[in-house]
Specification:
InterPro entries: ApbE-like_sf (IPR003374), UPF0280 (IPR007183). The chain has helices at 5-11, 38-58, 61-64, 77-89, 97-111, 188-199, 208-215; strands spanning 18-24, 27-33, 118-122, 125-129, 134-137, 149-153, 160-165, 180-185, 223-228, 231-235, 241-243. With 246 residues, it is of the alpha+beta class.
Length: 246
């Protein structure tokens, strides 16, 4: 999922909220909140990144591993979430980093009382905590379906994560060729890790069968959408499409 600020306002359906952007090193966040919280968000993001960077210095395999790593009960909360997500999805913990950061930032903004609603997008991975239903546009590169389909995210499902992996868009690692593999889950780190794991499986439309089989052991994935050129796979109780035109 790829958003400009205007796309947030139009397609996430939160015109009453204020959009702002926060950038720190590799992290580039687009956020919607009840007011501009750029400075507070930057402080929160700095602390989160410090935790990640310090842990990686002591545990370099955390950065490099493409396979799940053992749980570390002494690690910071965000590290533990990434380790858990990687184990469930069968991928390395860094596959969950963008979603984990998005959720951590969003939760802290709410829990510290700065806003009662928030959307945090980090590299196409989104943490949603809104009081009304939202519509999220699916960006799928050169696919003819790109920007034509939206996912209706009901308020009862939030807070939740909507994360996307792509083998044709962006520079995140994917071993597959899906234009977009989108996962909805209650935990944004897990949605991110599952999107990577499932996206790795898809090279041709025949691989949709692999997705169906894999989802039997991933009940945490409440909805999955895969776009491969002009072909579409969708499964899950959280999937509700709406027609849009980005």
């Amino acid at each position: 999922m790829n958003f400009e600020i205007r796309d947030y306002r139009t397609y996430i359906g939160a015109q009453r909220l204020i959009p702002f952007r926060v950038v720190l090193k590799e992290s580039d966040l687009l956020i919607l909140a009840e007011k501009d919280l750029s400075q507070k968000t930057l402080e929160i993001l700095y602390t989160i990144r410090q935790e990640l960077e310090n842990y990686i210095i002591k545990n370099p395999q955390f950065l490099k591993s493409l396979k799940p790593l053992p749980f570390d009960p002494e690690a910071p909360s965000i590290i533990q979430k990434m380790l858990k997500a990687g184990k469930i999805a069968g991928v390395g913990p860094m596959a969950a980093v963008a979603g984990a950061v998005a959720q951590e930032v969003g939760e802290k903004l709410i829990n510290l009382g700065f806003t009662s609603e928030v959307v945090v997008e980090n590299g196409g991975d989104i943490y949603l905590a809104l009081k009304n239903n939202a519509t999220v546009a699916i960006w799928a590169g050169n696919s003819p379906l790109s920007g034509k389909l939206g996912l209706r995210i009901k308020k009862d499902l939030m807070p939740c994560g909507v994360c996307t992996s792509s083998g044709t868009v962006g520079h995140s690692l994917s071993l597959g060729k899906a234009d977009a593999l989108c996962v909805i889950a209650k935990d944004t780190a897990l949605a991110d890790a599952c999107a990577t794991a499932l996206g790795n499986m898809v090279n041709t439309p025949k691989d949709f069968k692999k997705l169906k089989k894999a989802l039997k052991s991933l009940p945490q994935a409440l909805g999955v959408v895969c776009i491969l050129n002009d072909k579409l796979f969708a499964q899950g109780k959280a999937i509700e499409f709406v027609s849009i035109n980005v």
